[in-house]
Amino acid sequence: MTTAELLELVASLNARDEIDGILIQLPLPAHVDVKTVLDAILPAKDVDGLHPVNAGLLQAGRTALAPCTPAGVIEILKRSGISISGQHAVVVGRSDLVGKPAAMLLLHQNATVTICHSKTRNLGEVTRQADILVAAIGRAGFITPEMVKPGATVIDVGINRITDPTEFARFFAGNAKREAAFAKNGSTLVGDVHPRGFELAGAYTPVPGGVGLLTTAMLMANTVRAAKMRRGVFVFSSKGAE
Amino acid sequence: MTTAELLELVASLNARDEIDGILIQLPLPAHVDVKTVLDAILPAKDVDGLHPVNAGLLQAGRTALAPCTPAGVIEILKRSGISISGQHAVVVGRSDLVGKPAAMLLLHQNATVTICHSKTRNLGEVTRQADILVAAIGRAGFITPEMVKPGATVIDVGINRITDPTEFARFFAGNAKREAAFAKNGSTLVGDVHPRGFELAGAYTPVPGGVGLLTTAMLMANTVRAAKMRRGVFVFSSKGAE
C-alpha cells in the first residue's frame, strides 16, 4: 500500500462509528511516510497512544490513551505492590514509544526520574542509582550485572532474538533449559538486561514472559477505554495509567 | 469574563487570518475553566506552546511551538557556548509550563536528564550531580549552596518577590546594592537559587535579569515562527528550540 492508500484507509476507519480502536502495525515499508499515517489516526481511536495529542495529554498528566508498553510497566509495578512514589526510576532509552512516555508515567506516580541514552556518560553509575530500572534500549543483554543496584526492581522491556552460539553462551552458559531450547530452535529471546543482572534484582520481569504480555493486555484495555470515551463514559483520567 | 465568553473570544481569534499568535495571560480568575480555554486555542497559533498538540510534538522532538521559558533556557545555554550533549541536566520542578518541557528539550539536545520534585528523596544528592541545574520550583532561595556542584551551570527560572526583612537578610545580608534597593522599595526579587549558590557555579543566570528576559524574546520568536508556519514557510523543526 502507498501512503495515500493508507491515509484513505485510516480516514475510513476514523469515520466508521463501530470502530473504536486503530493500531498501525509497525514497522511499515520504507516507502510509506509513517508519521503522516500515524498523525492521521483520530486521537480518540489511537489505542497505541502515539498521536501527538495523546503524547501531549500524557505529558500533562491528562492521559486519555497511554502507549501500551509504558502503561504495562506501571501496571506491573502497581500489581506487584512495588511503591513508585519517592523512588529513583532510571529509564534507559528515550524512544517515543517507550522511554519518554514511561518516564512521564513514572514521574506522575511521583518517582524521581532519570532518562539515559546512547550519549549518557558513565551509564553504569547512573543506572546503579536506580530503585526502579527500566531497560528499553533494544540491545541484547546491554544492562550488565554491575549496572544494577542490589535489590533494585528491574523492568526489562527489550525483546531481542539471538542466534549466534557465542552470544548465546555469554548469556545462558550453564542454563540447561535454555540450552535445550536453543539446540532445538536455533535461537532464543533475551531482554536488554543480561540474565545475570536479574540475580541482583529485588524483583524483575523476565524475557520472554514479562512486559510483552502486559503490552497486549494494555492494548485491549486501551480499546475498551477508547470505546467508553467515545460514548462519554469518561474523558480523561487525572493520573497516568490506571 | 465567563468561560463561555472566553471560548467565544478564542474562537474568533482562531478564525481571524491576521492573528498569528494567541496567549492567555495566566492566572485566570478561579471561576474560569482554564484547561478548556487553553485547549480551545488553535495549536498553530498557540505561541505559549501549552496546547496538548504542541506538548506532544515537543515530546516527539517535532517541536512546532515550544513553551517560551524552556526554549529560553536552551537558547541561553547555546548562546553561552555551554555544551549540553552528554551532560547531566537536573531539572527541579515538573510543571507543564517549565519543568517537563525543559526536560524534553534538554533530552533532545542529548543531555542525560533527571527530573526532581517535592517527592524527591535526598534532593541535594541528586542536584549535586548536575552539570546543568535548572531550578523551576517557585520557592525563594530553595537551592542552597550545598546542593550545587562546584563549576555547574545554574539556570534559575524562579522569580520570587520577598518583602520580609528576615528573609531578605538570609539571602542578601552584606550586599550593599540590594540593601539599598530593599530599603527603598520594601521588596526585592530572588530566584529559586540561594544567591550564595551562584558563587559555586561555573556559570549562572541571575534573578532578575536572567531567564525572564529570554522568555519574552522567545514569545516573539514563537509568534514569528507561528506566522511563518501558517504561511507554509516551514512546518516542523527536527530538534527542540532553535
Note the main attributes of this structure.
homodimer, 242 residues, alpha/beta, Rossmann fold, 2 domains, five-stranded parallel β-sheet, two-stranded antiparallel sheet, 10 helices, globular, disordered C terminus
Describe the structure.
- The structure is a homodimer of 242-residue chains.
- Chain A has 242 residues and is an alpha/beta fold.
- The first copy, chain A, folds into two domains: 3-65 and 214-230, Leucine Dehydrogenase, chain A, domain 1 (Rossmann fold, 3-Layer(aba) Sandwich), CATH 3.40.50.10860; 82-209, NAD(P)-binding Rossmann-like Domain (Rossmann fold).
- The first copy, chain A, has helices at 3-15, 34-40, 52-59, 68-79, 99-108, 123-127, 165-172, 176-185, 197-200, 211-230; strands at residues 88-92, 112-116, 132-135, 153-156, 160-162, 188-190, 203-204.
- In chain A, the strands form two sheets. A five-stranded parallel sheet of chain A has the order 2-1-3-4-7. Chain A has a two-stranded antiparallel sheet with strand order 5-6.
- In chain A, helix 1 (3-15) runs parallel beside helix 2 (34-40), helix 4 (68-79) crosses helix 5 and helix 4 (68-79) packs across helix 10 (211-230).
- Chain A is globular.
- Chain A starts with a helix and ends in a 12-residue tail after the last helix.
- Mean pLDDT of chain A is 93; it is low at 235-242.
- The interface between A and B is medium-sized, with 35 and 33 residues.
